[in-house]
């Protein structure tokens, strides 16, 4: 069959075939040089530049000035609209004709007022197909518009991809012409390329690789690039190879088109809208030609954007969703961060996402899809299951710096024992190219060989969008069942997970969080975004509760459902996995902060005020609204400069402000100089000794007769570290930063008294971090309060430094506890194994605790997420100073509060969880009439159960949803008491779907419920 002799030289034969398809070498005589036939310039090209992202109809009305290929346009983030008139030569009849467009800005072709094709050089999309086979009746003259964004696929980083954008970059059009495209050459090139890759990927040990080598060599022998009549024989030789089949046992790769589009990252939100348009219109073009093509697409927010910006495209998407090719996946509003959003925020990601998908496409997603997020909370399995989702796909743990995650297909068991079938595509990518390398990697890397015989391969350019190409589809089609390679089929996630589930008997289980051993700096970077997130979560919690109560206190009160949905969606958007982690450019930070401020200053604050005012009759007195389900006794200040008052506030309700005398007032004693510390504060519960630099020499728990600060150590010690990661600046803090610890020691203003006791004793001091940065702090001790607050202002102008605060405590325990979504978990305080020391910097929410039997210390905060507890030192991460991708990240003034709380017994019995809520959810002041009586709407009989959420049910007036969770990690029975007129109660899922089999009895005592550890229970209360 083959030409003789074939010399035994693998290298020359392989390189000969490579050169035959090279786009660099020998293009004068090789096959690659024949890809394009004749070309012809455009009739005319004109342009119009605008700083704004405008609609087609607005753009097409502008005046266009002549321009030419090679011209440059800018600056960065502007848009250049081109008007191209073209005339296809008569002589091209019967040929495939393309508009070839190469620009370094991403572009969209518009034809007849509709977007028709995305063009992105970096995404290998430079052709708009004008005709597949030019006929006489087709228009030969036409006008097209090309909308070119002055940014690349990855924005406009100056020098490196993640560097801050160059604001003055120019973008050029390097090619714009008509060409004849030789489809037969393209097909043959794909044959050659796949065979060459098989030779390379299978290596010298597999005889199948040699079969590919001799096949491709013979193809070069037979192929005359200048004579297309030689192609058929060459193509059929390749076909013989590709059609040699596998046996039955071969692994199956489920190929799914994908296009990961970061909702904002190295470009702003507004550009993402256009990225979706460009990427998805290209997908639709591919679907028209490839009926087997399946494309998976996440993030309801992006669909919502496309729906409002590109309604025609959205209709096409709906059509292909119905056909089962365009598959909405994930079920969430955006692909959010998996660590920092609160439990309720995570529920809302699914609630908003699933409801959107169901409304627009008539289906709920069955899989959670989060390929690119920086770690996954242990509470996610329960939340997924509660939202109708039992499958999960990601691949990010392949980025672990230290340990290799041991599974690709496994059951993931969450905090409460819920499990979800989980798949990490073994190719470790969500942007494969359909190449042999991708398939071989998928097969070889699979860590569940023999347990799972199916894997996913996601193909298509991603991160900045782009998506699949025709070439990727052609590659995959060639090797559907080729001996030596895994079988390949186009699949939906549902098909993949069904196969995995059917054959899951041997799968392993991973319990607890999926911790990413990288990107630990994202718990701290961009502190303002984190603070905005926490404050908005708190505000929305309070608005929903106040509005729900107002419905029953005031029958004219309209529940602000629409406005709340808008606010939630903005908050959820900012939880995207490059926004809340702080790994985005400055423009995105500005947008995110604008949303938070908009919510607070205009939207949210007004909604809360309206709802609170509806709870009481108007008047000249003052009441407090407590949104938490327990009674509180707290010091409040009615207005700036006024006297402080100790207020007793009833659980979820309103209480008039009446001064309650404290059992023990706070005393502040200034020491004479014989002692090493300057001040002693005491409130009957705690006693502190504070040094002149603000460090704590002592923190004494009076009831327990225990000192909290470790012998010879200081609490509230600020420390600075050098913080230079290996590459991912905003993302990563490396373990070696711990070796650069330096205490902040320079006192600018020593400790002095601010409030001299009574209801509050507080002192203040100022430290210098450097000649550019300072810390000013007020240490606050309130009457009856079991923790000390540290209200902090930092003027921060550092570069690649990390600021933390330490509390070395007198506690010995191998584990510390951290609050997460709807619960808590333990992580080690030692570094026994590589899995332990990889967690040198971890995340937590409102509190962390280090306890031994009968004594412990908790560290609470109002907007921080980064912690570390090593041995007996508890550390809270405060501020970082990375320079990429935002060169100004975290520069400026910061405000935050943390608190320290020693306790006897366990943290559960000591109400640490409640105290952390109290610190985060201030009592809200309301003007009311003097005869206002205290009133409570809800309370719960067990301290273990927290009533987290009260809201109006979606689309159901007169029905409230309440969500409770077990917070201690215990099995418990609790009764929810309410003074609202509840007629019926039903258990519902997190999407608020009533469970017809689970009515709940409402008695005069309330509603009694059984909880398992960390269980979330949602109820519909029908009034
Ligand atoms: Zn991403």
Please tag this protein with its features.
56 strands, 6 domains, Jelly Rolls, 14-stranded antiparallel beta sheet, 18 helices, 1023 residues, 7-stranded beta/alpha barrel, elongated
Strand order of the largest sheet: 30-29-28-27-26-33-34-35-36-45-42-41-38-39
> Roughly what fraction of the amino acids lie in strands?
25-35%
Number of helices: 18
Q: What's the β-strand tally? A: 56
Label the CATH architecture of the largest domain: Alpha-Beta Barrel
Name the CATH class of the largest domain.
Alpha Beta
Structure explained in plain terms:
Its cofactor is Co(2+). It catalyses: Hydrolysis of terminal, non-reducing alpha-D-mannose residues in alpha-D-mannosides. Residues 517-596 form the Glycoside hydrolase family 38 central domain. Keywords: Cobalt, Cytoplasm, Glycosidase, Hydrolase, Metal-binding. Belongs to the glycosyl hydrolase 38 family. With 1023 residues, this protein is an alpha+beta fold. The protein folds into six domains: 10-27 and 185-243, no CATH class; 33-181, Jelly Rolls (Sandwich); 252-511, 7-stranded beta/alpha barrel; 521-615, Glycoside hydrolase family 38, central domain (Substrate Binding Domain Of Dnak, Chain:A, Domain 2, Up-down Bundle), CATH 1.20.1270.50; 714-905, Golgi alpha-mannosidase II, domain 4 (Beta-galactosidase, Chain A, domain 5), CATH 2.70.98.30; 937-1022, Immunoglobulin-like, CATH 2.60.40. The chain is built from 18 helices and 56 strands. The protein has a 14-stranded antiparallel sheet. It has a six-stranded antiparallel sheet with strand order 3-2-5-10-7-8. The structure holds zinc ion. Zinc ion binds at residues 260, 262, 372, 463, 577.
């Amino acid at each position: 069959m083959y030409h003789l002799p074939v010399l035994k030289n693998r290298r020359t034969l392989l390189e000969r075939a490579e050169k035959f398809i090279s786009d660099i070498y020998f293009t004068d005589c090789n096959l690659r040089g024949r890809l394009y036939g004749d070309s012809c310039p455009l009739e005319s090209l004109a342009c119009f530049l605008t700083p704004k992202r405008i609609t087609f109809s607005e753009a097409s009305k502008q005046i266009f000035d002549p321009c030419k290929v090679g011209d440059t346009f800018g600056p960065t983030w502007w848009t250049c609209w081109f008007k191209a008139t073209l005339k296809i030569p008569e002589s091209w009849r019967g040929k495939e004709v393309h508009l070839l467009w190469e620009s370094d800005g991403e572009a969209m072709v518009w034809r007849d007022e509709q977007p028709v094709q995305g063009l992105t050089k970096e995404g290998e999309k430079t052709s708009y197909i004008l005709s597949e086979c030019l006929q006489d009746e087709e228009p030969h003259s036409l006008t097209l518009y090309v909308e070119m964004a002055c940014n690349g696929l990855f924005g406009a980083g100056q020098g490196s991809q993640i560097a801050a954008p160059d604001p003055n970059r120019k973008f050029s059009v390097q090619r714009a012409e008509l060409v004849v495209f030789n489809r037969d050459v393209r097909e043959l090139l794909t044959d050659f390329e796949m065979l060459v890759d098989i030779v390379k990927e299978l290596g010298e040990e597999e005889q199948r690789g040699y079969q590919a080598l001799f096949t491709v060599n013979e193809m070069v022998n037979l192929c005359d690039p200048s004579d297309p009549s030689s192609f058929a024989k060459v193509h059929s030789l390749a076909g013989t190879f590709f059609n040699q089949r596998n046996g039955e046992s071969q692994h199956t790769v489920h190929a799914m088109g994908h296009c990961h589009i970061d909702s904002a990252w190295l470009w702003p939100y507004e550009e993402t809208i256009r990225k979706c348009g460009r990427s998805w219109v290209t997908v639709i073009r591919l679907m028209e030609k490839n009926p087997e093509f399946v494309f998976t697409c996440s993030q309801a927010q992006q669909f919502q954007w496309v729906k409002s910006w590109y309604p025609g495209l959205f209709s096409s998407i709906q059509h292909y969703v119905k056909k089962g090719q365009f598959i909405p996946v994930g079920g969430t509003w955006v692909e959010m961060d998996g660590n920092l959003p609160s439990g309720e925020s995570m529920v809302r990601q699914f609630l908003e996402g699933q409801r959107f998908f169901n409304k627009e496409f008539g289906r709920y997603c069955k899989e959670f899809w989060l390929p690119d997020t920086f770690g996954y909370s242990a509470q996610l399995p329960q939340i997924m299951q509660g939202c109708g989702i039992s499958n999960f796909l990601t691949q990010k743990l392949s980025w672990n710096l230290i340990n290799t995650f041991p599974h690709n297909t496994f059951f993931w068991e969450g905090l409460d024992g819920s499990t979800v079938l989980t798949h990490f595509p073994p190719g470790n990518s969500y942007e494969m190219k359909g190449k042999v390398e991708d398939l071989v990697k998928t097969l070889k890397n699979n860590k569940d060989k023999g347990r799972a015989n199916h894997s996913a391969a996601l193909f298509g350019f991603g991160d900045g969008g782009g998506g699949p190409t025709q070439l990727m589809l052609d590659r995959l089609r060639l090797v559907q069942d080729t001996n030596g390679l895994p079988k390949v089929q186009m699949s939906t996630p549902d098909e993949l997970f069904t196969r995995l589930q059917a054959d899951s008997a041997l799968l392993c289980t991973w319990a607890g969080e999926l911790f990413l051993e990288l990107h630990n700096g994202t718990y701290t970077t961009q502190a303002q975004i984190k603070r905005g997130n926490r404050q908005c979560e708190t505000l929305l919690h309070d608005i929903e509760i106040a509005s729900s109560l107002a419905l029953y206190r005031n029958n004219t009160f309209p529940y602000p459902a629409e406005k709340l949905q808008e606010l939630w969606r903005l908050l959820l958007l900012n939880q995207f996995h490059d926004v809340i982690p702080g790994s985005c450019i400055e423009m995105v930070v500005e947008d995110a902060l604008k949303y938070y401020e908009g919510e607070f200053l205009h939207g949210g604050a007004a909604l809360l005020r309206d709802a609170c005012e509806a709870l009481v009759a108007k008047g000249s007195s003052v009441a407090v609204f407590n949104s938490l389900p327990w009674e509180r006794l707290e010091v409040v200040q009615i207005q700036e400069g006024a006297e402080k008052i100790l207020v007793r506030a009833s659980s979820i309700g309103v209480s008039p402000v009446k001064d309650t005398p404290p059992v023990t007032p706070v005393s502040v004693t200034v020491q004479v100089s014989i002692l090493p510390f300057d001040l002693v504060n005491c409130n009957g519960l705690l006693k502190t000794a504070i040094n002149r630099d603000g460090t704590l020499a002592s923190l004494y728990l009076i009831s327990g007769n225990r000192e909290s600060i470790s012998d010879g150590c200081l609490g509230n010690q600020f420390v600075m570290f050098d913080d230079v990661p290996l590459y991912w600046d905003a993302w990563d803090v490396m373990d070696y930063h711990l070796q650069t610890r330096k205490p902040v020691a320079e006192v600018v203003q020593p400790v002095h008294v601010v409030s001299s006791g009574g209801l509050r004793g507080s002192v203040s001091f100022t430290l210098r971090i450097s000649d550019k940065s300072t810390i000013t702090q007020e240490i606050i001790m309130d009457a009856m309060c079991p923790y000390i607050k540290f209200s902090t202002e930092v003027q921060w102008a550092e570069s690649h430094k990390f600021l933390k605060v330490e509390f070395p405590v007198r506690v010995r325990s191998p584990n510390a506890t951290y609050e997460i979504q709807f619960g808590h978990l333990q992580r080690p305080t030692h570094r026994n194994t590589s899995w332990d020391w990889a967690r040198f910097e971890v995340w937590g929410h409102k509190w962390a605790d280090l306890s031994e039997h009968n004594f412990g210390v908790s560290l609470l905060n109002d907007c921080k997420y980064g912690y570390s507890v090593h041995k007996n030192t508890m550390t809270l991460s405060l501020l970082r100073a990375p320079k990429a991708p935002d060169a100004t990240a975290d520069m400026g003034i910061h405000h935050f509060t943390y608190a320290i709380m020693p306790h006897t017994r366990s943290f559960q019995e000591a109400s640490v969880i409640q105290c952390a809520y109290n610190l985060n959810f201030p009592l809200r002041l309301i003007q009311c009439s003097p005869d206002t009586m205290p009133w409570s709407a809800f309370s719960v009989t067990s301290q273990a159960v927290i009533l987290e959420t009260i809201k109006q049910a979606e689309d159901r007036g007169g029905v409230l949803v309440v969500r409770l969770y077990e917070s201690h990690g215990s099995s418990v029975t609790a009764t929810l008491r309410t003074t609202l007129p509840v007629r019926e109660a039903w258990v519902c899922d997190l999407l608020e779907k009533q469970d017809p089999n689970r009515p709940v009895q409402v008695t005069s005592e309330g509603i009694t419920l059984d909880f398992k550890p960390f269980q979330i229970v949602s109820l519909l209360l029908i009034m």
